Amino acid sequence: MKKALSLILFSFMAVALTSCTGEDDTPSQGGSVKFKLDGTQKEHVICIVLETEVQPDEYVLTLTSSNTEETGVFRYEIAPGVTGNVTPDFIAYQLSNKMMVANEGEYQTNVSVNSEGHLKGTFSGTFRSNLANDDEFITITDGTFDVYY
Known about the structure:
- By secondary structure, the protein is mostly beta strands.
- It has one domain (30-148).
- The chain has 1 helix and 10 strands; from the N terminus they run H-E-E-E-E-E-E-E-E-E-E.
- Strands 1, 2, 3, 4, 5, 6, 7, 8, 9 and 10 form a 10-stranded antiparallel beta sheet that branches.
- A hairpin with a 2-residue loop joins strand 3 (46-55) and strand 4.
- The longest helix is centred in the first third of the chain and has 17 residues, at 2-18.
- The radius of gyration is 21 Å and the shape is globular.
- The protein starts with a helix and ends with a strand.
């Protein structure tokens, strides 16, 4: 009987200890960037956020995303902690052969979370080629990012 009781107690303790994952159950890293590129739905699941000191005591977060099936890369730069309808330091989409940049006034962004290793928000706009004498542009709509780093 003592063995059975000990086994039951040990089982309950093992379940209790393994079911606790810490104070919060959020992912430690990863996430996604989703958007429509000229009307075609895209999803990037390879997402990296790096915090860089650009000047003494001045930092910037750089979100870079892509997927394994295409050559397009999304890039978004913003200061840590900034939320709301903000102007990012930089927002662009890299095609296989050129960088498409969103100029101020031609895009909208809204950051709802920017703290404790989590960056979440929305974006859309017109992105233009950064090459001289090139009038090419792309339109990105319904953009969302939700990344843990």
